[in-house]
Amino acid sequence: MNDRLLGILALVLAAFITWAGWDLEAPFAYEPVGPRAFPMLIALIIGLCGLRLAIKGGHQVEANPPGANGRIALMVLFAAAYAFLFQWLGFIIATVLMTMAVGRLFGGSWTKMLIGGVVMGLLFFLLFDKALDVVLPTGLLGELI
C-alpha cells in the first residue's frame, strides 16, 4: 500500500463519517453546537489529511516490524472492550484498565502503568465531569463519587 491509496481510503472514510453524522440531532438543545459538530470536525481532519496524502503521496510504505500487526489487532480489541465496558465499569476504572493494557503493549512496567492509569482516569474525570460539565458514567464507583 502506498500513501496515495491510504489518502484515498481516508477521503472515503471522511465522506462516510460526514454522511453518517450529518443527521445527528439532539431531541433538546443542551449544547450550543449539538452532537453533529464532533463527527464533522473529525471528518474534516481525516479528509484534509487524506487529501494531502492523495496529492503529495506516492511513497512506498515500509512493512511493519515483526509483531506489530498483532499489537495493532490487540489495540483494536482493547478499544472495543473499552467501549463496551465504559458504561458498566465507569470512566475511571475503564480508563485505568485501558491505559494499563496499552502500556503493556508498549512494554511499560506494571507500577508505572498503574500510576499513569489512575492519574489519567482521575484527572480526565475531574476535567470533563466537574470542570467542563460533561457527564461521564461513574459505574462501579458511583457510590464513592
Automatic annotation (TrEMBL):
<feature type="domain" description="DUF1468">
    <location>
        <begin position="6"/>
        <end position="137"/>
    </location>
</feature>
<dbReference type="Pfam" id="PF07331">
    <property type="entry name" value="TctB"/>
</dbReference>
<feature type="transmembrane region" description="Helical">
    <location>
        <begin position="110"/>
        <end position="128"/>
    </location>
</feature>
<feature type="transmembrane region" description="Helical">
    <location>
        <begin position="76"/>
        <end position="98"/>
    </location>
</feature>
<feature type="transmembrane region" description="Helical">
    <location>
        <begin position="36"/>
        <end position="55"/>
    </location>
</feature>
<protein>
    <submittedName>
        <fullName>Tripartite tricarboxylate transporter TctB family</fullName>
    </submittedName>
</protein>
<keyword id="KW-0472">Membrane</keyword>
<keyword id="KW-1133">Transmembrane helix</keyword>
<keyword id="KW-0812">Transmembrane</keyword>
<dbReference type="InterPro" id="IPR009936">
    <property type="entry name" value="DUF1468"/>
</dbReference>
